[in-house]
Structures are given as C-alpha cells and as structure tokens.
From TrEMBL, chain A:
It comes from the Bacteria. The chain crosses the membrane at residues 33-50. It comes from Pseudomonas tehranensis. Keywords: Membrane, Transmembrane, Transmembrane helix. This is Uncharacterized protein.
UniProtKB/TrEMBL annotation, chain B:
It comes from Pseudomonas tehranensis. This is DUF421 domain-containing protein. It is found in: Cell membrane. Residues 78-147 form the YetF C-terminal domain. It is a multi-pass membrane protein. Coiled coil: none annotated.
Length: 172, 148
C-alpha cells in the first residue's frame, strides 16, 4: 500500500462529511499557538507578573538611605499584599513619614503595625509618627487590600527630604 | 453592572481557553477529567460572584450567562461563519482502513483512541474493518464499519 503524501491527506473530503481542511488547519495552528501562550502565562505568573515574585516584589531606597520601601508592584483586586516602610533617624526619636499620592484611592489599609504614635491627614494622603529604637531605626508594616483597578502612583517622604516614588498596578 | 461584566468576561475567557484545549479535551470524561472540571468550576466561582453573595448578584450572573449562550446559538443559526468559528467542523481520521497520520498528529490522537471508540461503539476488532472514523464537532470519535 502506498503511503499518501501529507498534502493528499490534508485535502478536504466531501464524503461522508463535508470538510473544510483549510479552516481545520487554522484551528490546529490556533490550538498550538494557544498552548505556547498558556505556558508563557504560567511562567510569567511564576515570575510574579500577577504579584508575588521577582517581577513584582520591589525594594526601593531614598538616595540618603534614610527611607526604604518594600512593596509589590503588581496587585490583584481583592487580594492582600504586604508593604514595609523602613525609616532611619536620630536614636529614640519620633520619626515622621508622609504617604501621599493616589494609592489611598486604590488600596485599603487593612493593618498597620506598630501603631503610630500619632497620625494626621495630609494634603493628599496621611502623616504618621513612629517611635525609633536605640539605633534610630523604625519600621512600619502595612497590609494593603487592592480595591481599585489600574495604575496608582504613590510617594513616601520624610521631612528631612528623603523621598521614594513608585507605581503600583492593580489587576482586575 | 459588574455582575454582567464578570459573567461576560468569564464566558469569553472560558470559550477561548476551551478552544485552545481542543475539542477532544473534555469529550471523553475520565475520572481525572471529571475532577479537573470540578476544580475549574471552583476556581471560576469566586471570580463570577466576587464578594457579593446576594441573591440578586447570583441571579444576574446566571441570567447573563444564559443570555449570552442563547444569543450565541441564535447567531450560529443565522451565520455559517459564526457556527464554524465556535463549533468547528468534523474531520475524517480513518479512510478505508487507512489512518490519516498527519491529521492524527495535528489532532493529538493515537491509534488506540480510534480503536477504543471502534470497539465500544461498533464492536470492531481491527483497523481494516473501519470504513471511516470521524472526529465530530463535540470531540467524540464516530466510527463507520465496512460492510462485509
């Protein structure tokens, strides 16, 4: 028995069913390309495109090193992610930090630890005062619930002039 | 508003995902496929309802899903093109006892799959007894025996 060539095999038959092999080949190609896309998505998710991973976890510091922020670049609507603010100042002093930008519109602060000594509202955000330890260091742990959608720009600053700016994106 | 958007987004995403998976994927349900289907259902549930567990929300989600489904079937009835796009067409994989290998490779099928369908539906023992085997639009393999 002779083996049919591939092109003969892929010719459309009319009996017993009417085929459209040109279209069927497109479907098969779509399945194959789609599979590559799925694998790519899985890899990107493992890398943190949809939060929590090397692509998403960021650690920024101000130029003088007195202010540092660890945050997630990518959030998902309805999920909670941590954010840590590190401050450095005089030993045992009360350090002031200002959180401004659109982020309060996109995020809900679920917990804030430790409780700040004092807090006040600022022009577009809030001001917190935290107690530093004997080395002059203080940390603030926040857990943020992504509430909005899209890109949010934030800025964290101290009165001493240390500033960090960053963007966060919330997926639906 | 968002219950309609959620339902429409999930419907569209699942439609595309199952197109990528191919028609065979969930046609022959094994125990594992059944469990897989349930897990997909569980994962979808949260995204469909969000954090709103009200009666209105769940009803609106169901109403939207059924509305899209009926709408699509109406479209399929009117347009040959839409029908082919969503349901695809049948494909012959065995012709006069001869396997069409290139087609099998594209459809991710092996000879065993055909013989299984042949045995269970027609009581056929060998490949030579098959006149035609066809992958139907729903992913099932139908077998037509040679007249002896």
């Amino acid at each position: 028995m002779t083996h049919p060539t591939e092109s003969e095999e892929l010719r459309s038959r009319q009996f017993p069913v009417r085929e459209d092999m040109a279209y069927q080949l497109k479907v098969w190609r779509f399945e194959r390309v789609g599979w590559y896309v799925l694998v790519l998505l899985v890899i990107l998710t493992l890398l943190g495109l949809f939060s929590r991973g090397p692509l998403s976890t960021r650690d920024v510091h101000s130029g003088d090193g007195r202010l540092g922020v660890e945050y997630e670049m990518f959030h998902r609507n309805g999920s909670t992610n941590p954010m840590v603010i590190h401050l450095k100042g005089q030993p045992n002093a009360v350090l002031e930090v200002e959180l401004v930008g659109q982020w309060l519109e996109g995020f809900e602060v679920q917990t804030l630890q430790p409780q700040p000594v004092r807090s006040a509202s600022a022009q577009r955000g809030l001001k917190l005062w935290v107690q530093a330890d004997a080395n002059g260091e203080a940390s603030l742990y926040l857990s943020l619930l992504g509430d909005g959608l899209g890109l949010y720009h934030s800025r964290i600053a101290t009165p001493g002039g240390a500033t960090v700016s960053f963007d966060q994106f919330i997926f639906p | 508003m968002d219950s309609v958007l959620r339902a429409a987004a999930i419907y569209g995403a699942l439609l595309v995902l199952f197109k990528i998976a191919g028609r065979r994927s969930l046609a022959e349900i094994t125990t594992f496929d059944f469990v897989l289907l349930m897990i997909i259902g569980e994962a979808t549930q949260q995204a469909l309802l969000g954090d709103d567990f009200s009666l209105t929300n769940s009803l609106m989600v169901i109403v939207t899903l059924i509305a899209i489904d009926v709408g699509l079937s109406l479209l399929k009835q009117r347009s040959q093109w839409v029908s082919q796009l969503i349901d695809g067409g049948p494909t012959i994989i065995v012709e006069d006892g001869r396997i069409l290998k290139a087609r099998m490779r594209h459809a991710r099928l092996i000879e065993e799959d055909i013989m299984e369908a042949a045995r269970s539906s027609q009581g056929i023992e060998t490949l030579e007894q098959i006149k035609f085997a066809i992958i139907e639009r729903n992913g099932k393999i139908s077998v037509i025996a040679k007249e002896s």
